[in-house]
């Protein structure tokens, strides 16, 4: 494998997913494709040469146009507010990647596949789900997706559409606010919720957990307690911890 | 030629000169990066082992390990996900202490951990006061997600080399890729040379 280098990327489309979250579609010179679950590093350069870089998961399936990124605004952040609020179609940034060879699922790995997302942690898992459908794979996939409220669910309509495919299930839980008549779960993902909603440990799913650190710790720990083999659980942590 | 980002200013918290490697930014908190669930080994079951190319393997129980002479280390740490944290304070046993009197021709080590994680290092990157097995951070026992009960600390290399949940060192004549190293991350991981991925 050759050295990864920074590639200029042009924003070809940018649209809001929720008030805090925006998707950017990029055209990257010399992009050679990716595997679902991989990320890129994004670099911004100020006019005096100052630079800042962060990692962002690739949201799109390899079969789609792209790559697309989906970024959540962290209010005090250095990079994410720029990507969410400032960047426009036609602007250029730099990316380096794709990066990562472990938090990856592709059709060749088969199923069943259990995906557990907290907030923006949906991004790499959605790439896996899109790839599952776009590739015509018949792997059974279940996504359990935790959001604070319905308005904060990223890719909501698309997830509904994906869930109409045979073998694809999407289960939502809303931890803070549930609309009247809500039929999904209404609490944090814990052991009981997993026992009720996840594939059982006995079906030995390939399991991917992504979200803020506290979410990943809690969910991966609960899965181990429920008897899932730790070697089948892959995690990606986006967020900060207390100290 | 660089691509300029219209209107981007950045936070410019650049830190003291010579302390922040290229492409890194400073944080005050302590983010977590791990490949899988956090293993939770009770200290009664924990041991630390030196194996591989040695005359006789060595092993310490948790109690024996805590009785070894330890040091306080104040150091900067650098994660390949681009954050750096300055002046972190650790307590741990120097790898020199663990290897004292060990007769070996090995030139590499593979650190092995609960959960199956491994990382490889040249022996010279963990000797002569460059590496520790840390048991506390910031005056407190390590937290589970930061490697409890013990993690390797090799602060001059990217933090994935500072393997969490460490259980021992295997001394090897030849280099053998560890977990992330087999998955595209650089074999050595020097942050000052931005050795992030294969080919860097
Ligand atoms: C492999 C990987 C993939 C990632 N993929 C995505 C992705 O697809 N979409 C996405 O939006 N982000 C993703 N992230 C997170 C992203 O890299 C940045 O950390 C995030 O955008 C914050 O950067 P910032 O410059 O805006 O904030 P910073 O300037 O880095 O941080 C400002 C403050 O906010 C805190 N903070 C940082 N992150 C969070 C958070 N998630 N929640 C709450 N507080 C936070 C920091 O601790 C700090 O105090 C990913 C991270 C990794 C490591």
TrEMBL record, chain A:
<feature type="domain" description="FAD-binding FR-type">
    <location>
        <begin position="4"/>
        <end position="105"/>
    </location>
</feature>
<dbReference type="InterPro" id="IPR039261">
    <property type="entry name" value="FNR_nucleotide-bd"/>
</dbReference>
<dbReference type="Pfam" id="PF00175">
    <property type="entry name" value="NAD_binding_1"/>
</dbReference>
<protein>
    <submittedName>
        <fullName>Flavodoxin reductases (Ferredoxin-NADPH reductases) family 1</fullName>
    </submittedName>
</protein>
<dbReference type="InterPro" id="IPR017927">
    <property type="entry name" value="FAD-bd_FR_type"/>
</dbReference>
<keyword id="KW-0411">Iron-sulfur</keyword>
<dbReference type="GO" id="GO:0016491">
    <property type="term" value="F:oxidoreductase activity"/>
</dbReference>
<dbReference type="Pfam" id="PF00970">
    <property type="entry name" value="FAD_binding_6"/>
</dbReference>
<dbReference type="InterPro" id="IPR001433">
    <property type="entry name" value="OxRdtase_FAD/NAD-bd"/>
</dbReference>
<dbReference type="GO" id="GO:0051537">
    <property type="term" value="F:2 iron, 2 sulfur cluster binding"/>
</dbReference>
<dbReference type="InterPro" id="IPR050415">
    <property type="entry name" value="MRET"/>
</dbReference>
<dbReference type="InterPro" id="IPR001709">
    <property type="entry name" value="Flavoprot_Pyr_Nucl_cyt_Rdtase"/>
</dbReference>
<keyword id="KW-0408">Iron</keyword>
<keyword id="KW-0479">Metal-binding</keyword>
<dbReference type="InterPro" id="IPR008333">
    <property type="entry name" value="Cbr1-like_FAD-bd_dom"/>
</dbReference>
<dbReference type="InterPro" id="IPR017938">
    <property type="entry name" value="Riboflavin_synthase-like_b-brl"/>
</dbReference>
<keyword id="KW-0001">2Fe-2S</keyword>
